Amino acid sequence: MVAPMVLDGPINRDAFTAYVTQVLVPELSPGDIVIMDNLSSHKGSAIQ
User: Fold this and answer.
1) Which of 13, 18, 26, 27 could make an SS bond with 41 (beta carbons 3.0 to 4.6 A apart)?
2) Do residues 27 and 2 touch, judged by C-beta distance below 8 A?
3) What's the per-residue H, E or C state across 9-25?
4) pLDDT of residue 41
5) Residues 37-43: contacts with CB under 8 Å, at least 24 apart
6) What is the pLDDT of residue 1?
7) How confident is the prediction along the chain (48 residues), in pLDDT tens digits per residue?
8) How far apart are alpha carbons 40 and 10 in whole angstroms?
9) Measured distance CA(19)–CA(17) in Å, rounded
10) What is the pLDDT of residue 45?
């Protein structure tokens, strides 16, 4: 696991966006693939 994050409670769009920008993206390399499910917090325009 490369970019773990633990929250105390459910995830929401703001928390997921913070995770993506501050934890996940810095660990990605060109050509990496990120797979997300249909969770509503995964659908924000900032995430796309």
Assistant:
1) 13
2) yes
3) CCCCHHHHHHHHHHHHH
4) 83
5) 39/11, 40/13, 41/11, 41/12, 41/13, 41/15, 41/16, 42/16
6) 73
7) 788 888 888 888 998 899 999 999 999 999 999 888 888 888 878 877
8) 12
9) 5
10) 83
The CA angle 35-42-19, to the nearest 5 degrees, is: 85
Specify burial of residue 39 (Cβ count, 10 A radius: 0-12, 13-18, 19+): exposed
């913070």: which residue's tokens?
18
Joined together, the tokens standing for residue 14 give 């703001």
CA end-to-end distance (rounded Å), the chain: 22
pLDDT at 48: 75
